[in-house]
Amino acid sequence: MDLRTTQDWIVRRELLGTPGVADVNSYGGMLKQYEIAVNPERLHGMGISLTDIFNALGKNNQNTGSAYIEKNPTAFFIRGIGLVNSLSDIEQIPVKTTSNGLPILIRDVAKVQFGNAPRYGTFVVDTVGEAVGGVVMMLKGENGSQVIANVKKRIETVQKSLPEGIEIVPYLDRTDLVGRAIGTVSRNLIEGGLIVIFVLVLLLGSLRAGLVVASVIPLAMLFAVSMMNLFGVSGNLMSLGALDFGLIVDGAVIIVESVVHRITQGKLAASGILKLSKNQMDEEVYHSSKRMMNSATFGQIIILIVYLPILALVGTEGKMFRPMAETVSFAIIGALILSLTYVPVASALFLSPSTQRKANISDKIMTGLHRAFEPLLNLALKRKITVVIVSVILFVLSILLYNSLGGEFLPNLEEGDLASSVITLQGGSLEHTTETVEKANKILMSQFPEVKHAICKIGAAEIPTDPTPMETGDYIIVMKDKSEWTSASTREEMMEKMEKALSVLPGVVFEFQQPIQMRFNELMTGTKQDVAIKIFGDNLETLATKASQVENIIKNIPGIVDINVEKVTGSGQVQVVYNREKMAQYGINIADVNDLLKTAFAGNSAGVVYDEEKRFDLVVRFDKNFRNDIECIKSMYIPLANGNQIPLDQIASVEIKNGTAQVSRESTRRRINIGFNVRNRDVQTIINEVQAKIDKQLKLPAGYYVTFGGQFENLEAAKQRLAIAVPVALLLIFVLLFLPFTP
Fold first, then answer.
1. For residue 527, which phi and psi values (nearest 5 degrees)?
2. How many other CB atoms are found less than 10 A from the CB of residue 717?
3. What gap in Å lies between CA 472 and CA 483, rounded to an integer?
4. Is the pTM of the predicted complex or chain greater than 0.90?
């Protein structure tokens, strides 16, 4: 309780002032309350109702203001101070006066103590057991790396103000993955740039010419980054990872190669001039560049058209892939502008004006390529019809081959850490799930030295950004660097070994994935698995039955793991069903009884207790000894209008029954999810196999139907848009090729 109070009133408040932070969602611990633990037997014996308790607390916990008194030269404001400050203040509040004039105080009918709100979730860390944690939520549109840097800086300040012995330990840092991803992209871009420069110098046969072309790369990147900043495109694995320096320098290569060729083999070189003057150099560069402008421009335009289909994507697939097409387009447009302006000027300034050129390794390479290529070219020109027919056949075969390929919406990113859902018995208690997770943590921490932290959020927090029942939890397993792994060499192998080690826990299911992948799946389709089979219908029992049949149909398909059927029924409930006839006889309203039932067991706020700037609810509920059994509900007394009281079971039946666990809807229809993960196969192939088996073996009542969600849903949406956009792009390219002014 103390840790949770520190989290809510010190750590959270400080972090909320950090730029870019939307909120801090707290997990675990106990939410402190001032509890009036009522003894219902004493209430009944003294003829007092819960309403009397509420009225007494409300009337004896308040301040007031009453203008002021003037005593020149000062004004004294009048204040009535009546807020409670301690447990003893609450104990001394009078509830009622007996017939002989003696007051009945709160302490006479209740125990006043520090209590906590009913818990629907816990937070378990490593082998420590329960702890208190939080998730910092970022404002939409903010720079994640900058916000995390701000949070880290603020945490250093907050740590100094915490009581001795309390430490803030970050367990999952998004910048780790971002840093690894950007590091990979940066390394690949640098290596790619160096390779392109090497090839340019090698094949152009001139160091100066190669460097002029290579200088387009950083300038085009500068243009692309400026446009990304202007249009709000972030630098990430998708946007920067697709940059191809070979495409960027394409136009510059054409122009520089033309200039070098004209200088060494043009009319002036043929006339015997050994070194061009400045004016001659400018003239040669101008004519050679002008001659190749159309070719360079149209080459870059055709490359741009190739990316138009990706720009046509919308929704999730658009948000994922459009930045890639936009960044490449920005870079190519920048390179095109540079090819038309900067490259001719740089060529005139920096290329050698000498018309004499010694044979070098470049000439030998090009001569060898010509010797291999010219016979093939001549053969192709002699067999034009054959070449066209073979090309068409290959094109058709490529389409057939494409349709036979498997498909995935996104390849799996190596995040470095693992995530898992833990599912215990349906309707399991919070205490049981917590004990199970503590056992699982001991197994993970003792048997896998690669695990740095094993953190599990069970159930739901006060801000239910991830509302899950008490029998389920979400694991974040923070791993050491892969170079330090000894138990397994791959992520998939590690997941399999962890599942095997945890299989000793009876009745518990673990579903291993990766943190971002799991959240991404959940945001897209409402399920944390890679694929969701959705059955739509009206009756929950029928949906549950059909979902169980689907599970049996697909469980033996290779590649399908971690099958999870959404639980919609089977939740244990204590159902209080009111007898309207008897309630009418006593003149009792259902709303009044519901309020009493809620207050007695869940608790109801009767005000607030202030502790300097901290605020805690003043809550009335039955003492825990009178709310731990179904008999406590049956014997709860209901006040009547004449002052008498009757037990609840005289006006209602109280029974333990199985009830509805949850009702999920999509597009106004009830539905149930059967989720599963895919390993060592592609999503498209598995979906095709699953769909064929379900169509053959599953019989649904009228009005019921099956759809597929998850990665498959986005994959299909992307394919449908590309099926329209790609032919349009091809048509546009063909139109460009046959325009009269096309080079």
1. -125, 150
2. 17
3. 32
4. no
Contact assessment for residue 637 and residue 514, using Cβ atoms and an 8 Å cutoff: no
271-301 per-position pLDDT tens digit: 778 788 888 888 888 888 888 887 788 888 8
Residue 502 pLDDT > 60: yes
Which residues does residue 33 pair with via DSSP β-bridges, in sequence order? 115
Residue with tokens 């809807």: 665
Closest CA to 438 of 192, 736, 125: 125
Query: Could you give the dihedral angle defined by the CA atoms of residues 107, 108, 109 and 112, in that order, rounded to the nearest 10 degrees?
Result: 10
Q: Is the separation of the CB atoms in 426 and 661 below 8 Å?
A: yes
- What is the distance between the alpha carbons of residues 533 and 622, in angstroms, rounded to a whole number? 45
Angle, alpha carbons 449-171-525 (nearest 5°): 100
* Residue 2 neighbours by CB under 8 Å, 6+ apart: none
Higher model confidence: residue 338 or residue 407? 338
Q: Which amino acid is at 261?
A: H
Phi-psi sector, 40: left (phi>0), alpha (psi -120 to 50), beta: alpha
pLDDT of residue 462: 66
Q: Classify residue 435 by burial, with Cβ atoms within 10 Å: 0-12, 13-18, 19+.
A: middle
Q: Residue 237 — pLDDT band, cuts 50, 70, 90?
A: confident
Give the chain's radius of gyration (CA, Å): 37
Taking the C-alpha atoms of residue 8 and residue 27, their distance in angstroms, rounded to an integer, is: 10
SS (H, E, C) 248-311: HCHHHHHHHHHHHHHHHHCHHHHCCCCECCHHHHHHHHHHHHHHHHHHHHHHHHHHHHHCHHHH
**Closest CA relative to residue 442, chosen from 432, 428, 430, 456:** 456
CA–CA separation, 652 vs 590, rounded Å? 10
Longest dimension (CA), the chain: 132
Helices 278-306 and 711-737, axial angle in degrees (round to 10): 140
Q: In whole angstroms, how far apart are CA 582 and each of 380, 646, 651?
A: 98, 12, 6
φ and ψ of 342, to 5 deg: -70, -45
Q: Is 111 helix (H, G, I), strand (E, B) or coil?
A: strand
In this predicted model, what pLDDT tens digit does every residue of 389-403 receive, in sequence order?
A: 999 999 899 988 887
* Distance from C-alpha of 527 to C-alpha of 384, rounded to nearest angstrom: 55
Q: Which residues pair with 64 in a beta bridge?
A: 80
